[in-house]
User: What shape does this take?
Amino acid sequence: MQSFKLGTKIGRRQLSLSDGGKITVRVGKPQRSPERRSYFCPYQIVGLGHDHVRRAPGGLDSIHALQFALEKVGIDLHVLNEAHGGAIRWDGDTDGDLGFPPREKIKEILKK
Assistant: This one.
């Protein structure tokens, strides 16, 4: 797996596990891809044992890359939440909301 750096942090959100553990999501500043044709946004989910920095590639500009990153974090958190028996919670939780926008298809899959 390729290693990425988070770089300058532009956002952070704290979530909790039902056993009292903490999960921190950090989002880095969007950056131009090395090939300079697109942007990517690094992010990190800390507290579940897989703390490496990931990136959501493919943005046409920095805002697009940030949107992709927030969606990717949402997908990752929903998958992790399923793997942990629904134990992840966000303080702003409303009806199982983890505070990040998962893609609509993922929402449909998770409802089944």
